[in-house]
Amino acid sequence: MTFSTESDPLAELSAAGVSVWLDDLSRELLARDELKELIADKHVVGVTTNPTIFASALSKGNRYSEQLRRLARVGVNVDDAVLALTSDDVRAACQALGPVYLQTGGSDGRVSIEVDPRLARDTDATIDQARKLWETVDRPNLLVKIPATSEGLAAVTRVIAEGISVNVTLVFSRERYRAVMDAWLTGLERAKAAGRDLADIHSVASFFVSRVDTEVDRRLDALGTPEAQALKGKAAIANARLAHQAYEQLTAGPRWQALVAAGARRQRPLWASTGVKNPTYPDTMYVSELVIAGTVNTMPGATLAAFADHGALPARPPAADIYAGATAHFEALERVGVDFTDVTDTLEREGLAKFEDSWTELTAMLDREMRAAATNNERGGSPQKSSGGADLLAIYLNDHLSGATAGLELFRRAAQAQQYREQGTALAELAQEVEQDRDSLTQIMADLAVPTAYTKVALGWLAEKAGRAKPNGHLFSRSPLSDVLELESMLLSVQGKAACWRSLRALAETDRRLFLEHLDVLLERADRQSVVLERLRLAAVDSAFRCTQPSE
To answer: CA 3 to CA 305: how far, in whole Å?
Structure first.
């Protein structure tokens, strides 16, 4: 993360009443004291985490290796290992943010840890794990993250009644947000009836932003009309502003006022998913457009750095005009045929699925590491001799790694070339997933003790074919055929990747170093990628060849 020192937009944001939280945490960040530097120099006053963040942290570097070896030696199961590693990181972050917690009277200095997302539809199991996380981390500035499913909200009410501070996450719709606030108030009322000190109970509601634009824009692109195109890139901010209006209405009411009199703290709105997915939009728009006093904005590192460098706080029209404009936008979406209820239902399902996939990857990585450590302990650290089958597997996996590396470059180049067109967002998201898939392959190779053949990786045929040969009818520039051929190459690369996952899955039936559930996740993701690429490919075919049809 690099920052400009010429101005201090983050200080201005903080002075405007917005708490700056970092949506990232890793042992590397803690070990290098980078978190402390962000607190001291960049006005960061909180940290949020989720399964995807932890999975990414564990896939990079070796900061967790020694702890995993110790856990393997004593026979800890993978779920308890996840709890040990994540709670240790969160406890360390709580310690780093302790002074902020004291200075702000507990409003900031908060660190979130999420319950297992596989429990999102099980109220009792969510409550049990929330209690366990609260007791294990054992820091007053912890927030336990609970998804805002109907089952999750029942859990929110009960754990708040017990005095556990909560971050309610994966909130997409205003209707669900009202239910979140009701669950919070009901929990406080029960805590009050039980004689608890309400001042010790804190909460935020994580209202997701950028994913709304991604899904709405996709539907507007599918409609394809000028009226639909004019509505792109505005739904997320409008949705968030109307959510804040609902918050203002509730906190002005008698139910909340009675709790305030008893010492209750506000459940602040927290703007989550603030990284911009569409490269044609300003990279700070989900921060600068939501500068509202008394809210939290949790930013991934890249967004934090971007706002520190060139963020701005624009002037605002009166609040009534903001809310009227947001309402008018949703009326316009309805007129062109966008069902926003279906949008938010889709986003909740996909959000839960993404976190479940990340959790599966996280447990798979830990399981592999602990199995390898246990095997190494049993053998006294002696390496196995290579066999003919192992040599062939090394060749096979390095060939796929070469293709994956070249394929990633193609995805990145295509996303860059299409960044100002409607398919640019989809390609950018695919490029991120393809990078994650390549990282998964390198991790699997490490688990199987397969060395990387770097010269082979550097000579991927896909990059040579797509990047140098330019088989598109134009030597130095793009033609309509470029889109078709690039998408066909990307589709072939994904199909080849899926074949590799299937091969490894077959080996996993007898090789304990491989993890079936992780490979299933990778296969499902490859299938989804193929569907998206085929849709984009057919659209490119129609665009390139439509004008060549003979007239009658």
So the answer is: 6
- The C-alpha atoms of residue 406 and residue 428 are separated, in whole angstroms, by 16
Least confident of 96-100, 156-160, 175-179, 349-353: 349-353
Dist CA 485 CA 491 (whole Å): 10
Spot the catalytic one: 145, 192, 232, 497: 145
Encode pLDDT of 109-150 as tens digits.
999 999 999 999 999 999 999 999 999 999 999 999 999 999
Q: How far apart are CA 382 and CA 377, in angstroms?
A: 9
Q: Confirm if 242 and 323 have CB atoms less than 8 A apart.
A: yes
**Segment 241-250, tens digit of pLDDT:** 999 999 999 9
Q: Of 522, 533, 474, nearest to 500 (Cα)?
A: 522
pTM of the model: 0.73
What is the residue-wise DSSP string for 22-59? ES---HHHHHTTHHHHHHHHS-EEEE---HHHHHHHHH
Report which of 157, 531, 207 is spatially closest to residue 344, judged by C-alpha positions.
207
Residues 6+ apart with CB under 8 A from 333: 216, 231, 235, 340
145 catalytic residue (yes or no):
yes
Give the gyration radius of the chain's Cα atoms. Answer: 25
Element (H, E) at 292: none
DSSP string, 462-507: HHHIIIII--SS-SSS--HHHHHHHHHHHHHHHHHHHHHHHHHHHH
Look at residues 343, 361, 271, 351 and name the one whose alpha carbon lies nearest to residue 307: 271
What are residue 299's DSSP bridge partners?
22
CA 145 to centroid of chain Cα atoms: 14
Q: Which one, of 328, 292, 283, 348, lies nearest residue 310 by Cα?
A: 283
Question: Chain-centre distance of CA 182, in angstroms?
Answer: 26
